[in-house]
Amino acid sequence: MVFHKYRLICTGIPKNASSSIFDILNNRTDQSHDHFTILQDFQNNDADLMESYTAFCVVRNPYDRFFSACEQIKRDASENFDKSTKEIIYQEVIGVHNVNEVFIPQYKFVSFGNKILIENVFRYENLEEDWSKFSTNYNKTSIFKIRTALPKSNKTKERIPWQEEIKTLTQEELDYINHFYEKDFKLFNYEMIEEL
After folding, report:
1. Residue 96 pLDDT > 60
2. How far is residue 9 from each of residues 30, 103, 121, measured CA to CA in Å?
3. What is this structure's pTM?
4. Taking the CA of residue 59 as centre, how many other CA atoms within 13 Å lie in the half-sphere pointing to its CB?
């Protein structure tokens, strides 16, 4: 998401507070809320101009993000949705043709090979603090100020902590999730749980 008024680029990884960020920074000079990769943002805009903008993204514990994505699939489906986690993995993550966008590994949005292309990487788990520091520093030199507190948009209600949700997985499901998000664990320094 490119915010021209503020000269900011936010690579909006699905399920990582992109709605909250869009809500706080959006104005009529910008395009819609999107989930483009950092490379797509450069391809879709003037690359020289993009070089002068400040880029940031939010990363999230892969387990927490996975379960949040499962909740979105359930929320967006019909009232009679009763797929198991295994069915969600096979139908939405593996998919027949394409992985559902909400499950795409985070590294695919912000890196090239093993190199993260964005200088400001915030952690979802510390987002209020990270955003407050970033916005306070940004506001010192910017003509247009940004709010230092993020709204909570598109938040799933009454979700149990991922540490409890993970206990509902089978070892096979955990192994698949670990394999699918292996690069996210490594690049963003999150601990992988090998056994239930």
Report:
1. no
2. 11, 22, 12
3. 0.87
4. 24
